[in-house]
Amino acid sequence: MWKRLLKQFITPTAKIYMTKPVLIRTQSLSKEEDWPNSIRINVAHLTPKPITLSVEPTAYIFTSGNGVAAAVLCTKKPVYAVGLGTAKVAQNQGWQVVYTGTGNSLNLATDIVSLNLSPQHFTHIHGDLAPVNWHKNLEEIGHIVTSQIGFTTKFIKNLTPEEYQNIQNAQKLVFFSEQAT
Length: 181
Known about the structure:
The protein is an alpha/beta fold. Helix content is about 25%, strand content about 30%. The protein is elongated and about 60 Å long. The two termini are about 20 Å apart. Residues about 1-30 have low confidence and may be disordered.
């Protein structure tokens, strides 16, 4: 998909940047003035899904800020966050973050195991593309982890005519995804 998109608008003067979530939180942390003479192109769009919980959890696990945003109507419970960015989003939305990991979801699960908690019922609210098998070691020691899809992801296939026109004079192109914020 990327190669086809890139062929649509490569110009001799444009530098192309594809952001990585761990380096740049493009939408949430940067402003237009941080990227002068650039065109930012959102390559994935998120659609919220209604969250239905059959059992009220004792805590939530958030592996992205988008998961936090999807849980906006859920009862506030303690939160285990995958990293600092996710923890900050959760705190800003009124959640009590009781643990912040420093890696990925698998590392977070290992960290939670090391906390020697009594059995918990965690709900993990995530997107449709998130891995869901990372928490097996939590279940092995008696925790229950319920996965709940809170948003779906749609990748763009073509640029709009306006985006294509703007790119013709751009010095920098910045690709980002809502999923990376």
